[in-house]
Specification:
Strand content: under 5%
Shape: globular
CATH topology: Fic-like fold
Distance between the termini: 43 Å
CATH architecture: Orthogonal Bundle
Number of helices: 8
Number of domains: 1
Number of strands: 2
Radius of gyration: 17 Å
Structural class: mainly alpha
Order of helices and strands: HHEEHHHHHH
CATH superfamily: Fido-like domain
């Protein structure tokens, strides 16, 4: 995390006492990182099942959906669940969108990206590849929430694949080629090509594994 303004009193910048700065301040008083990881994973599994069962094939996906997913997932854990972050954040030397710009950029994502690339019903492989790549890169670059952006972005990509009549995506290759994935996200500032290559590979590998 990288802040360029005073974060005093901002709940997003606070950590749970006793966690040595490794667990964000939460409603449950959890201070053990492993316990929090397990809790978030368990709650995410429930969110995943709900979303997959409830999203319609012809449903245009919106930023309101994404915010509601985040609130539903972490609302009982963090006070800021479902709210856009206000802190500036970075990964290594790479800065995500400034906290003060998140709301504007998410509105733009809704109007210029999600409205164009969803719903995904009837899309060809090329169309779906582009749709998932563009949406995924743009959402990750904005990084709208204090925590949970990666998992929500993958869930959104899964929903898009399901809308197109595909299987849920197997992200093993992204995890194994983490350096390539990070490079594709950063390249997405000007070029979605690298992410399209990774998405196409995931789509084809998923289909192949499903047929075995």
């Amino acid at each position: 995390m990288s802040g360029r303004y005073d974060t005093t009193g901002n709940i997003e910048a606070q950590f749970e006492p006793g966690s040595c700065g490794r667990v964000l301040a939460n409603k449950l008083g959890v201070s053990d990182p492993k316990e929090m990881d397990d809790l978030e994973l368990s709650l995410f599994d429930k969110l995943h099942n709900h979303v997959v069962d409830s999203v319609e094939t012809d449903q245009r996906l919106t930023v309101a959906d994404i915010r509601e997913w985040h609130r539903r997932w972490l609302g009982n854990v963090y006070a800021w669940a479902g709210r856009y972050r206000t802190l500036n954040m970075s990964k290594g030397d790479f800065m995500f969108a400034a906290g003060g710009q998140v709301a504007r950029l998410m509105a733009k994502l809704d109007e210029e990206v999600l409205s164009v690339h969803t719903p995904c019903a009837g899309m060809s492989e090329d169309q779906l590849t582009e749709a998932i790549a563009v949406v995924h890169v743009e959402l990750i670059l904005i990084h709208p929430f204090r925590e949970g952006n990666g998992r929500l972005s993958r869930l959104l990509a899964n929903v898009m694949a399901l809308q197109a009549g595909r299987h849920e995506l197997d992200y093993t290759t992204w995890d194994e080629r983490r350096t390539d994935y990070v490079a594709a996200i950063q390249a997405g500032m000007t070029d979605h090509g690298p992410m399209k290559g990774l998405v196409r590979r995931v789509l084809r590998e998923t289909a192949r594994y499903a047929d075995e």
